[in-house]
Design goal:
Number of helices: 3
CATH architecture of one domain: 2-Layer Sandwich
Shape: elongated
Order of helices and strands: HEEEHEHE
Strand content: 15-25%
Strand order of the largest sheet: 3-2-1-4-5
Radius of gyration: 41 Å
Structural class: alpha/beta
Helix content: 25-40%
């Protein structure tokens, strides 16, 4: 028996990975996904209610306090005495939502009168206090 070798061909170590079973498994999974995806999309149609996810923003009212050049206070269009101003500011601070206080000071008024109005507003509990100014024209 010269044509036969003493060594068996099955004893050799295979140095590469057999990809055929891996490809077969992947093809089976692909077919399963192709069949199940359209089935998952065919669900029972339900008319769902619609809801807004936006937060409702309630803009607070703006309260205008004007200080004239002679130091007199005006709340909106009404003149206010120095003694009545703290009580009026406390009433406004108790409202919900709390209004924003916009102070308009004349350019010739003493700073002391504007600072006094700010201090009264802060003591009354107003949280948002701002100043209103006219923009200065820019020379070309």
């Amino acid at each position: 028996m010269a044509g036969f070798s003493a060594r068996d061909d099955h004893d050799e170590v295979m140095g590469e990975i057999n990809m055929i079973p891996f490809i077969d498994v992947m093809l089976v999974l692909l077919i399963v996904f192709i069949i199940t995806v359209p089935v998952m999309k065919h669900a029972v149609n339900v008319d769902l209610p619609r809801a807004s996810s936006e937060k409702e923003v309630v803009k607070p009212e703006q309260l205008r306090l004007s200080v004239q050049a002679d130091g007199t206070y005006f709340m909106g269009e009404n003149r206010v005495d120095d003694a009545a101003l703290p009580g009026l500011l406390q009433q406004e601070a108790a409202r919900q939502p709390q209004p924003e206080l916009h102070i308009r000071g004349d350019k010739d008024v003493r700073y002391e009168r504007v600072a006094l109005a700010m201090a009264m507003a802060q003591q009354a509990g107003l949280k948002k206090i701002g100043f209103v100014m006219e923009p200065t024209p820019i020379a070309p």
